[in-house]
Amino acid sequence: MKRGGLQGYIIKRLIYAALIAFGVVTITFILLRLGPTSPADKYLANMSARTQDPAQVVTAVEARYGLDKPLYQQYGNYLINLARGDWGWSFSTSMPVIKLIQTHWVYSFQLILLSMLFAASLGLLIGVYSAIKQYTRIDYLATFFSFIGISIPNFWLGIMLILVFSVQLGWFKTYYDTGLPMFSLANLKALILPVITLGTGMMAGYTRYARSATLDNLGKDFVRTARAKGLPERVVIGKHVFRNAILPIITIIMFSLSGIVFGGAYLTEIIFGIPGLGRISFNAIFASDYPVVVTITLIGTLVVLLTNLATDIVYTWLDPRIRYD
Amino acid sequence: MRYRMMRQTSRKVGGKRNLIFIGTLLVLGLIVLLDIYLVDRILEPMGYFYLFFVAVAVLYGVYPLHANRRLTRYYWERTKRHRLSVLGLAFIILLVAVALIGPLLTQDPTRVNFDEKNVPPVGFTIQQSIYDLDTDKFLVREIPGTYQHPLGTDDKGRDLLAMLVSGARVSLQVGLLATLIAILIGTIMGVVSAYFGGWVDQVLMRFTDIMMTFPFFILLVFIIFIFGPSLVFIILVIGLTGWTGAARLVRSEALSLRTREFVMASRSLGASDARIVFRHLIPNVLSSVIVIATLSIPGVILAEAALSFIGLGDPTVTSWGMILNAGQRSLDTAWWVAVEPGILLFLTVLAFNFLGDGIRDAFDPRSQL
Questions:
Q1: Can you give the CATH number for the domain in which B233 is found?
Q2: Of B116, B260, B284, B322, which sees the most CB atoms within 10 A?
Q3: For A22, which residue in chain B has the nearest alpha carbon?
Q4: pLDDT tens digit string along B267-288?
């Protein structure tokens, strides 16, 4: 059976992504059940502290979480609830988890989006430029700084930025002000330090990839042809080199979402007190608020899965040479 | 002549060594079992990791390098041309020395002394307002750095030098041991997957895909949240989750090796699967494995630091992340508490990155140095 071209490929990728999502959800469930304390225990500790009648709470909690049912049934319910958007009740904030996430995801989103824009645009620019000027002082400088950028722990960079610009110079607030309207200059200003914190490491990485990808293409025959035709250097670089170099870079950018961006955003939110999903999860950890931690782990993972899927599909569209079978 | 030399070399590095290694593992496993079922402890959990690490390092690091002195010299000559990587190596050796000997020489990193809180490093002086019980007023006092606490103290009066030395030990423990576990799992997964192919490959690689989808740090936070923090457990978890990159790399290398003539020849001479895997595939992927190991140590060290920074580290040991956390809380009164562990963390990561780059260039025969 041979399905036609791109459509078949996309369907295949979708099925594959669904399978992986299923695997991720299952592993999360197994980890939860393997844990030394069940969600009920932590919930119990929290509840009995309020009601002061643990015996009564035990049965209530077990019934509520379905922990008295056999394991396969628990697993089934877990899947069904996930699919239905019934992600449990966050007792530390007294609201449904889905509501909590709906009100807070946007803070993470704006931070990640701005940081990626910052990192990708600057990284590409510096990388391509330093490749064109290979072995000049500018190139060495860019390489040196990208090395530093990759090695600097981003949470420490954040703290140092706060120390210098907020504590010593007093240019920014030491904490993110949640009262600011989303689309305002003040909000943008409040996000400058977090974006630099999260973006620097990424930018350094992208610079290196952009540099090497550009160098790869600069030596190709079609570039020599383009130059031989007498095309201006601007067109040679912009059209022939850059377009070919951007493909691997896009993949790198998208795939870096999983490790660097999510881990980094988590820490950045904690340092600057931005009430995004990372900060929510952090607070939930210390309140032993199980449903919140589980849900945010799953959301992070599924977002990564979706971006990887999107990357694959965008890639085939950007590069017609790729065969999708 | 050349052939004889090669045969000697291969005799030196192969064969018995794997047996010795497996034997060591069995002995260690036995001790663990004894440890679990006997009442009195033979070793601290960390002790097993150390023995394991030493076994691997001697059998697969020191011994082959010693047996192939000419190759070792060649690699060293090539690595040496990378100035920064030599600098990185020097820093790492220094750090290891400090981590090994340092705790014996410094003060107790956990000793709290509120009379000496927020003392700046030597050469700095800060103004501190102190509540005076007698006059019922806040007095502004100048506090100079003292040689008793050369790097200052934190807001509980703990000696920062001692804390940083203790942190160096923690970071290196986690970085080296967790990477070792991850690399071992990754290498085995990759080689097995490539060599056997078919459904074995499918299953292993799909599992790798799933593991890769989890954002590493968030998975780490999740697992530590469920199972609770302890240093041994953190090392295990990082090791058990961080092998995916190595598995992919080793698999792709082993795939191309599998079809090479010398493997074919060996198989047609009747070599067993185990012999081909241990004698031909693993030694040939080893150089890439060493490179990826060196380059993944910084990530592991950072992960541990980040974990303890957000309060999910082992509460019984002082680590750099923990000091950073304390430092962020006292940024406006004691800036050095946040600055010092960060600089060390940064230099350590930089050193491993430099060394890794140097080794990669040295091991890659195509690269012109």
A1: 1.10.3720.10
A2: B322
A3: B210
A4: 888 888 878 887 788 878 887 8
